[in-house]
Write a structure and sequence with these properties.
Immunoglobulin-like, 29 strands, disordered N terminus, six-stranded mixed sheet, Jelly Rolls, about 20% helix, six-stranded mixed β-barrel, 4 domains, alpha+beta, about 40% strand
Length: about 650
């Protein structure tokens, strides 16, 4: 089953990050001039983190970061110590992208702060907000009009209005500081221990501020071409690039051409220096004359950031005549990545074997294909993991760019089969749990580890599936073991846009194993394998669950061997027949046999249900003793007559 999780938005296009952008008229330029603009996005930033007069909190544009409620409290003692404006709390962040005077940003904003008054009818509060952006400072009084404001008992929202400078300019990384000052406060009809709390940081309270910031800068740099497509090269930069990509609801964009009738079909993302990202869009159109391209960044809601320009082809894209875009530098894994996991676990005798198929497409697939095609390339950066994987044999030979060769695949496989390399690659790069996929977190725990690459088309294209097959074997000690669990670790929840999982469990024992499938620790099914069996396990949506331990599949040994298993089934009936026959002779045999058959059937049922053998023995003994009590040795007619005459 294929499922899409909340990251589907991220999946839509790498560049989607720009999505937070604010609406405005298109920015355009002369033919082949690069087009650049600042995209403001949603101007609302939420207050987070601990803060008081000595501690500064933080701000985030993502509601998902509102996880912990924070507050600062004023009481009569602290208020009486005030002399003029006193700092109560503050929050800070860095300017995400450079702001120019020509950028379209909000010229006024509101700050909403949740307030709670306790043990008093009301409080008369004289407070203000100071916003500092770079070298500029903006101030507003409570209520937006200055002076004191009366706040009734209970919960309410205090609103501040701030007028900003429409010609504001600030450099990326400069400080943004929001400070709350209280000049004076007085409680009305106060009871015992009156207080006022300023509250933020939780999704249950609407404490936020609108800021005149640019979320990121976006640009169209140039248009290149293949034989059948136009390659639109764009860039975006922001200190929040990773955060934006981690919140897919802000990741939507498209490129239009030919009067809006042709849309981009794929994207390739590339990391650039200085917190920047290059994104190349493939548009299925050939260009003979200058063509107008429109780039739209679409955040949730009615706003857009639009770049529009007229471009002709500056050059035919390099790549040895390839009819698709071949990244000039190591591509980024940011963007759409889809994963399908097929896991087969076989338990035979004392060995557990995991056979794992990982099939993936999208940005992760392109990164792996490009990396194998450039493995051991001396021109790679020192931070690239692909540089260390190859051998002299690869660096000294002629290689074909854009076509993965057998020697490159073998170099990759050889590296993965060495030591801890594969396990580190799975967990640290792909966000997968090696304990689930391989049955171990270290290579020393495995007797066998083999890696294979299964690819039909060896072109370096992200839409072509890449299959990694891994086989591992380890000893089975007879104890209960978890065979299936959530295969994505915390990194994987961010790496993959969608994921599916299908597992098959084969048990090789004729007797003695019970398999238990459980969700959230609740037993759903219990089966005893009578012969080798397969149990299909499906997880409908790995990513949406979030709980890394929510699904597991366990097998456990409940008795030691088939001999003991058979003995426990027949031991009870044998005891019944033996005791009854010894005490009552042949006359008691029919009833003893009937009872023993009932006990044998009962024990067999308990055996199938994986009930402990001690319980079965207990039932056999109790039934045997009870049988003797009910119909032990019976008296003959002669004995009964003599007994009767004796009484007379």
């Amino acid at each position: 089953m294929r499922i899409q999780n909340s990251r589907t938005g991220l999946a839509i296009m790498g560049m989607m990050m720009i999505s937070l952008l604010i609406a405005s008229s298109p920015v355009s330029a002369a033919t082949n001039d690069s087009i650049e603009r600042g995209c403001a996005g949603d101007s609302t930033y939420f207050l987070t983190g601990k803060s008081d007069a000595d501690t500064t909190g933080s701000m985030s544009m993502f509601e998902e970061d509102l996880t912990n409620e924070e507050s600062v409290t004023l009481d009569p003692v602290s208020i009486n110590s005030f002399s003029g404006p006193n700092l109560v709390a503050s929050w800070e962040m860095a300017v995400p992208a450079t702001i120019y005077e020509s950028d379209e940003i909000t010229d006024s904003g509101e700050m909403v702060l949740h307030v709670r008054v306790s043990n008093a009818d009301a409080i008369i509060l004289n407070s203000s907000i100071v916003v500092e952006i770079g070298g500029d400072e903006f101030t507003s009084d409570s209520g937006g009009s200055g002076g004191a404001q009366r706040i009734a008992q209970g919960d309410s929202e205090l609103t501040y209005t701030i007028e900003y400078n429409s010609n504001l300019s600030a450099g990326r990384g400069e400080d943004v500081l929001v400070s709350l000052y209280v000049t004076s406060a007085m409680f009305e009809f106060a009871g015992q221990s009156p207080k006022v709390e300023f509250i933020w940081g939780s999704s249950n309270v609407a404490s936020n501020i609108e800021l005149p910031l640019v979320l990121m800068r976006a640009s169209i740099e140039e248009v290149r071409a293949t034989a059948t497509s136009a390659l639109v090269h764009t860039e975006l930069s922001s200190l929040l690039l990773d955060d934006i990509f981690a919140h897919d609801e802000y990741m939507r964009m498209e490129i239009l051409a030919n009067g809006g009738t042709v849309r981009s079909t794929s994207t390739v993302t590339e990391d650039l220096p200085g917190d920047s990202l290059g994104i190349v869009f493939t548009v299925p159109i050939t260009i003979e004359a200058p063509q107008t391209f429109t780039v739209k960044y679409n955040p949730p809601g009615p706003v857009e950031c639009i770049l529009e320009g007229q471009f002709s082809v500056t050059e035919t894209s390099g790549g040895g005549g390839l009819d698709y875009y071949y990244p000039e530098r190591e591509p980024s894994t940011l963007g759409t990545s889809d994963l399908a996991i097929e896991l087969q676990v076989t338990v035979i005798d004392d060995v557990i074997q995991h056979t794992t198929h990982l099939t993936f497409t999208g940005s992760m697939n392109l990164w792996v294909r490009w990396g194998i095609d450039n493995i051991a390339d001396e021109n790679l950066t020192s931070s690239s993991i692909w540089k260390e994987m190859g051998s002299e044999q690869l660096t000294s030979r002629e290689r074909i760019r854009g076509d993965i060769e057998d020697a490159e695949i073998q170099a990759f496989i050889s590296h993965m089969n060495q030591g801890q390399n594969l396990l580190n690659f799975l967990s640290g790069r792909m966000g997968l749990d090696s304990d689930v996929l391989l049955g171990a977190s270290t290579r020393l725990d495995l007797d066998v580890l083999q890696t294979e690459v299964l690819v039909e088309d060896r072109a370096v294209r992200q839409e072509l599936p890449f299959v990694l097959q891994i086989t591992s074997k380890r000893p089975y000690g007879g104890a209960s073991e978890v065979l299936y669990a959530q295969p994505l670790n915390s990194l994987g929840l961010d790496v993959w846009s969608s994921a599916s999982f299908e597992g098959e469990l084969s048990l090789g024992w004729a007797d003695g194993v019970s398999a238990v499938a459980a969700t959230d620790g609740v037993d759903h099914t219990r089966r005893r394998s009578v012969t080798t069996s397969s149990i299909m396990v499906s997880i409908p949506d790995l990513i949406a669950q979030g709980d890394l331990d929510s699904i597991h599949y366990t097998i456990g040994t409940f008795w030691t061997s088939p001999v003991v298993s058979v003995a426990t089934v027949i031991l009870g009936p044998v005891m019944i027949i033996g005791i009854c026959f010894a005490s009552g002779g042949l006359q008691t045999l029919p009833k003893a046999v009937l009872t023993s058959l009932l006990v044998a059937a009962l024990n067999t049922g308990l055996h199938i249900l994986a009930i402990n053998i001690l319980m079965m023995l207990f039932i056999g003994i109790v039934t045997a003793v009870g049988s003797v009590a009910l119909f032990g040795r019976q008296k003959s007619e002669r004995e009964k007559l003599l007994e009767y005459l004796g009484e007379i």
